[in-house]
Specification:
Layout (H helix, E strand, L loop, with lengths): L1 H28 L5 H24 L10 H26 L2 H11 L1 H11 L7 H19 L3 H6 L1 H23 L8 H25 L8 H6 L1 H26 L1 H4 L5 H13 L5 H33 L1
Helix pairs in contact: 1-4, 1-11, 1-13, 2-3, 2-9, 2-11, 3-4, 3-8, 3-9, 4-8, 4-13, 5-6, 5-8, 6-14
């Protein structure tokens, strides 16, 4: 039992750190290649590897949709088309500040899931949880606006990319929630088939954009230059984070796993400082507020669950 908990903690930590590191790495890559082809090359490789692993582990029968093909395509599109394309597009449009904005938005996923559950599924959260949600969004606003909300709202070159990133993050939250519809499937099977369908959708969109001249195919030299970045993105934020997180959640429980989201903005902040990127006091303050809100809500839920359990037993 203790070994499985330790393994789950290590997997969730690696996943969170990998997600935090992917935005500074992607920012460097975008100096040589556009975010669309960068994403497709990255997840095209991830898809091929996942398909091979699933075929080896579970056989050809694991590729049957079992009447859930449309739902699987929808959730895969939310994650591997909406999330992957929009979050890196928004980051690229924002330039250097986009590194922290994308990371902060990603760390808001637990809070966004609470809001979606409240508004759509009528899962009314406790008042304390809503306060934590509010504090986390204030923290995100500090990072995104750099303390000047009026200037941010009036500048479309900042506002629109930030909205793209927010839509992307919501897409990944929906994908995560969709896992409940495939509870009888292994994490590998759900990850692989959703990644396959979502990436194929993204390829069709990018092919169309290329055909109509909106984007262009990167040169061989550009791809060669970003190969180290692509290798990192395929291995860590792609394969290890995607599979490791799903396995880690099953070993720790979602409540415990959510704590590791605190490492996403911290990792991004640390790498950004090492890279020499400009980090403002609003980046630091916003990150602290989000971490405090995540920790506070997690501990509150633990206490509430323990209280409910004790009252049930008595």
């Amino acid at each position: 039992m203790r070994n499985s908990v330790l393994l789950g903690a290590i997997l969730c930590l690696i996943a969170a750190v990998s997600w935090g590191a992917m935005f500074p790495v992607a920012h460097e890559a975008f100096k040589h290649i556009d975010p669309f082809y960068f994403t497709i090359i990255r997840y095209g490789a991830v898809t091929i590897i996942l398909v091979a692993i699933l075929l080896w582990k579970e056989g050809s029968q694991a590729f049957r949709f079992e009447g859930k093909g449309l739902h699987l395509w929808f959730f895969g599109t939310m994650a591997f088309t909406v999330y992957n394309l929009l979050i890196f597009w928004g980051e690229d449009l924002l330039g250097e500040p986009g590194v922290m904005v994308a990371s902060i938005m990603e760390s808001l996923m637990p809070m966004i899931s609470i809001v979606i559950g409240w508004m759509i599924f009528k899962n009314n959260p406790h008042l304390f949880t809503l306060i934590c949600v509010l504090v986390s969004f204030i923290g995100a606003l500090l990072v995104i606006t750099k303390g000047d909300i009026q200037a941010f709202l009036s500048a479309t070159d900042h506002f629109i990319p930030s909205v793209l990133i927010l839509i992307a993050v919501i897409g990944w939250v929906i994908y995560t929630m969709g896992r409940n519809e495939f509870s009888g499937w292994s994490a590998l099977r759900y990850s692989t088939l959703s990644c396959l369908l979502g990436t194929l959708t993204a390829i069709v969109i990018i092919a169309g954009a290329t055909l109509f001249g909106y984007i262009s195919v990167p040169s061989g030299s550009a791809i060669e230059t970003v190969t180290p970045h692509l290798l990192f993105m395929v291995i860590f934020p792609g394969l290890i984070a995607l599979l490791g997180w799903n396995v880690g959640v099953s070993l720790l429980s979602p409540l415990n796993a959510l704590l590791f989201f605190n490492f996403v903005p911290v990792t991004t902040l640390f790498i950004s400082i090492i890279q020499g990127n400009h980090v403002t006091v609003f980046d630091l303050l916003g990150t602290v507020l989000i971490i405090l809100s995540l920790l506070s809500n997690n501990f509150f839920l633990r206490i509430q669950r323990q209280t409910n359990l004790q009252s049930h037993l008595s």
